Amino acid sequence: MALHLLVAESCGAQAADLSRQLSLPSIIYSSPLKPALKALPPEGAALVCDETGLALYALSLPGSGPVRVELGEGALGWRLDEAKVRHEMIVKACGVRPGVMTTVFDATAGLLRDAAVLAVAGCQVRLAERSPVIGLLVEDGLRRAVGRPELQSLVARLRFCPGDARQQLEALAFADDRPDVVVLDPMFPHREKSALVKKEMQVFQSVVGEDADADALLLPALRAARKRVVVKRPRQAPPLDGRKPDFVVEGKSGRFDVYLPANQQMDSP
Ligand SMILES: C[S@@+](CC[C@H](N)C(=O)[O-])C[C@H]1O[C@@H](n2cnc3c(N)ncnc32)[C@H](O)[C@@H]1O
């Protein structure tokens, strides 16, 4: 996938750092952004750095909005109400109880939608993300949120550990600070015609691909989790790694397969 790095002239000081982190040349542009995006070949994506932070744009989808980690805003904002989050399916699937602190390892952090809901529900959430581009969006979203007093307690409950979750889970299985719950939400190949898949998801998918190795996360997750592994799946998708969950929490747009490590056979290598 072709990725371009566009840096606004006013943010030129960040260009070298971003270039180094992504091993990509940076293109400095003077505002406005639209013509700068139009000047790029109409495929792949562009990571844009400007005064508002970092955002991803799909070049094959002209007019598609920026994709960024935005805690407490837009689609996520209305979900981050302390009284409302306990009704969220993921909170129920993780077995979060009021007044009891649950530690969660979110192995597939993405845009932090699930992680933010869990943090508002009172969980301490460690986040893993292996895509360097999405990792930069995560760091940028957390940095901007730190500056907002109303998001302080939420940000304090999120800890980002960039890199592949599989290695982190394998190490956690022998650590003192094993998480109560491991959450897995790998990408799933969309069968719908691409026009039907939300634009934001298309942008996201064009950068991270399809997580074809997702099955390999389940066993390390079962070994690392003290109490539960929760796998988010589309409604018709087979269970991860073909392994039967102990129970399922059905949501409106998908389901959560819940595994109780104590009940699961884990002899395979
Ligand atoms: C569907 S998205 C997750 C969305 C996320 N639950 C949210 O609420 O925004 C899947 C993400 O998991 C990441 N991912 C997949 N496998 C991973 C692994 N083994 N280690 C770390 N990140 C992984 C992908 O790069 C992608 O960003």
Description:
There is one protein chain. With 269 residues, this protein is an alpha/beta fold. The chain folds into 2 domains: 3-58; 74-263, Rossmann fold (3-Layer(aba) Sandwich), CATH 3.40.50.150. 30% of the residues lie in helices and 20% in strands. The protein has 11 helices and 11 strands. The strands form 2 sheets. The protein has a 7-stranded mixed β-sheet with strand order 7-6-5-8-9-11-10, with helices on both faces. Strands 2-1-3-4 form a 4-stranded mixed β-sheet. The radius of gyration is 19 Å and the shape is globular. The model has no long low-confidence stretch (mean pLDDT 91). Bound molecules: S-adenosylmethionine. The site of S-adenosylmethionine has 21 residues, from helix 6 and helix 9.
- What is the number of domains? 2
What's the helix-strand series?
Answer: EHEHEEHHHEHEHHEHEHHEEE
Number of helices: 11
CATH architecture of the largest domain: 3-Layer(aba) Sandwich
User: Could you say what the CATH topology of the largest domain is called?
Assistant: Rossmann fold
| Helix-strand category | alpha/beta
Flag low-confidence runs.
none
Radius of gyration: 19 Å
Overall average residue pLDDT: 91
Distance between the termini: 33 Å
Total number of beta strands: 11
Which small-molecule species are bound to the chains here?
A: S-adenosylmethionine
Largest sheet: 7 strands, mixed
